[in-house]
Design a protein that fits this description.
Layout: H1 14-40, H2 52-68, H3 73-96, H4 105-127
Length: 132
């Protein structure tokens, strides 16, 4: 529904896009840490990669997204594009890599779904206008 000026409101506020990015980064970091712990216990990781460094990178990106969004749009947009590409490559990998790299089909598609959220959040973050 249009406002009094006739303009349509944004469908997704920028803060919602940031929240989705933070959920993706947090869950992806947890996914990596879980994989490292599983491998340390002699079990297969949840996916083809598991790294404390990747988890730290994801947490760092999340912190920078929070710091940059209200101050430096272009830095925020650049970080969003980087995060979105990371998530996109993980989605592509889920459908092109050897299925034996995941403990089951469930974890393969769960990882693809998690990273699809990251792609959508990144696109939303760049496309959606700031609302206050």
């Amino acid at each position: 529904m249009a406002d009094s000026t006739g303009a349509m409101p944004d469908a997704l506020p920028a803060r919602t896009a940031l929240a989705a990015q933070l959920v993706w980064a947090g869950l992806s970091a947890l996914w990596n840490v879980s994989g490292v712990l599983l491998m340390a216990a002699g079990k297969q990781a949840l996916g083809p990669t598991a790294s404390i460094a990747a988890a730290a990178l994801l947490v760092g990106i999340a912190v920078l997204l929070v710091l940059c969004r209200p101050r430096w749009f272009w830095a925020y947009a650049g970080l969003s594009v980087l995060a979105g590409l990371m998530a996109l490559f993980a989605v592509i990998n889920a459908f092109t890599a050897d299925p034996a790299l995941w403990p089951s089909g469930f974890w393969r598609y769960a990882g693809a779904a998690l990273n699809a959220i990251g792609v959508l959040a990144a696109v939303s973050a760049v496309v959606v206008k700031e609302t206050r």
